[in-house]
């Protein structure tokens, strides 16, 4: 099954004046479309009025004569009627064209992302109010729904495609719903989900020490094939990240890669790749570490084995405190990247971080660090923070949306992703995130271009080496 | 690409000429006159509104082309805007010709 992925960036990085100008332009285009719709109706009504006005015309004496008497004339009824029909059709055609032009502008600049956020906040507020009524039992209600879905999935009553359909249908309420439930249970109203997981996060080291160990062993490994190549932009970095995360070229699971680039001035710049969660029990980038990383307490987050692994890898590779570092991470890897950029900013100089499919809204990243995030609307993971990413001039979030199959003859906009099976699948995977970024890059709004240009500049230079660090947990 | 409305094709003599059907005495003596006059008036009004809308659309297209945007997607956007403007221009020309033909056929 093929799906079309389209993306819209946040309307970040524009001045108020620019936004007003662009939004005004899109509004005028939409209003003109509305005027054409009205005109189309009026032509149809005019057509009907002409037909009603001239019934029985052929029977009138003045029209029956072979030569019209003076002062009388033939009336081109057919031509009048077809003229009205043609005008109505022309209005419809122009309206469709206007709509398409307005949509292109809106999507490229993310003009209505603020309106969408407003709607999400409104939904969140309404959901929260509704849940207040059922507050004592809300967690049990949602827990039952979750349990029911889990049982249905395990017993084969709910296949992947149906589950994905459910996720896509509920996409717009996932984030506000999670926040509303967490707010009822947590005392941290700024980051309720973070507050909720802090307790379990504190217990994680004890639990991990018992089951899988909390001691990291890190080994330098080499890929059996080509491995990661030189990245020149965000798309290239995402391609490398996908290679790493899919364990291609014999790269083991839970492997972090560190690339060193040397600029013309001889200065080293670093690019660190952090893959997503691995389900292996001895993986330091495991499910349990997600809970620690989502905590609202830095002391809990910094204990996560995945973060410690990346820190250790960077030290071993030779990253110095003043060396500019860029991080690229998928899912938990993105959370690690954002957490390091916020919690370890006194030890490293983070230039640019790229996160894909990662909930990072509550990480307080230093103002000087550029942040580029890609999220897919239909996947739950990015919504787990319960909030939109912050808005600032050097932080951009691109939101992808998975649509239907491309139309025959190829899609005019959007990138195509082919699912593994005949039905829908989770859009959390790298293929979807890469497609969303690629479409955003195709639209090439100034904000997307600025982010990509900055990242390109951050890793400019010749690739000197790529080091691969495999991490394992031991007791 | 800005064009003033004065340089745009007119809708022919249809809107400007006094209709021969406006003779009130003739209208009273023949039932077809009144009806035909009403039809012509309806078309005339609609044609005026249509011209105003199409002129406005052309001006809008002009503004839309000046958006700060580069790259392939921007070129596709501008091509769409130009195509839309061309349809507007063509529509005004065609409407003018058809209305002139209608007027000629009505004339005795």
Question: How is this structure best described in words?
Answer:
The complex is a heterodimer of chains A (475) and B (108). Chain A is an alpha/beta fold. Chain A has 15 helices and 10 strands. Chain A has 2 domains: 112-189, no CATH class; 209-474, no CATH class. A 10-stranded mixed β-sheet of chain A has the order 2-10-3-4-5-6-7-8-1-9, with helices on both faces. In chain A, a hairpin with a 5-residue loop joins strand 3 and strand 4. The longest helix of chain A has 38 residues, at 16-53. Chain A is globular. Helices cover 69% and strands 0% of the residues of chain B. Chain B is mainly α and 108 residues long. Chain B is built from 3 helices and no strands. In chain B, 35% of the residues are buried. The interface between A and B is large, with 52 and 50 residues.
Features:
heterodimer; A: 475 residues; 10-stranded mixed sheet; 49% helix; 16% strand; B: 108 residues; 3 helices; 69% helix; disordered N terminus
Which helices and strands occur, and which strands form pairs?
The complex is a heterodimer of chains A (475) and B (108).
Chain A: E1 2-9, H1 16-53, H2 61-64, H3 77-109, H4 113-133, H5 138-154, H6 160-169, H7 171-185, H8 192-211, E2 215-221, H9 234-245, E3 255-262, E4 268-274, H10 287-293, H11 298-301, H12 305-317, E5 324-330, H13 332-343, E6 349-356, E7 370-376, E8 395-402, E9 415-418, H14 430-443, H15 446-458, E10 462-474
Parallel strand pairs in A: 4-5, 5-6, 6-7, 7-8
Antiparallel strand pairs in A: 1-8, 1-9, 2-10, 3-4, 3-10
Chain B: H1 24-29, H2 31-64, H3 72-106
Helix pairs in contact in B: 2-3
